[in-house]
Design goal:
- Helix content is 20%, strand content 36%.
- The chain has three helices and seven strands; from the N terminus they run E-H-E-E-H-E-H-E-E-E.
- It is an alpha/beta fold.
């Protein structure tokens, strides 16, 4: 399955991850179906933010409320691995619910990968890999897109 992401959302994730080399950044992915329209940065409230993330519960509740009022749905979240690989860690697997949400993981040097949290996934028994394609909505408003592929 391919997940698409707006170029603006991907650029924001890249910039936030690059600006935080010693702490995991995190945020929500908003959109519809398999299209990520917005990356919404959130505070990482984990007690050990250098190797774990926890999205601020107030931000999560606010995003779900906005979706109920007609805004984009919360379809997943993102976080970074500042010194690790852009793939789910065993800790990520232990913390993930098998609810089908999309996980984006930003690694060093702008690498971003996409995953779906599922029961009995191929990675750590919790995640299946997804293809990720960037849709440049600002440069091609009539539906054209550039496919920026990821590792």
């Amino acid at each position: 399955m391919t997940v698409t992401i707006s170029s603006d959302a991907l650029d924001l994730i890249d910039k936030c991850a690059a600006a935080s080399p010693d702490r995991e950044i995190c945020g929500l992915l908003l959109g519809r179906g398999a299209h990520i329209a917005v990356a919404l940065p959130c505070a990482n409230v984990a007690t050990e933010p250098w190797h774990r993330f926890e999205i601020d519960p107030a931000a999560l509740i606010a995003a779900h409320r906005a979706a109920r009022c007609g805004g984009p749905a919360v379809i997943g979240h993102y976080h970074s691995h500042p010194t690790g690989l852009a793939e789910p860690s065993p800790r990520d697997a232990a913390d993930a619910a098998p609810d089908g949400t999309i996980w984006l993981i930003a690694g060093p040097a702008g690498t971003v990968t996409a995953w779906r949290a599922v029961a009995a996934g191929r990675r750590h028994g919790r995640f299946d890999p997804l293809d990720l394609a960037c849709v440049d909505v600002t440069a091609a408003p009539q539906g054209g897109h550039s496919s920026r592929d990821f590792a």
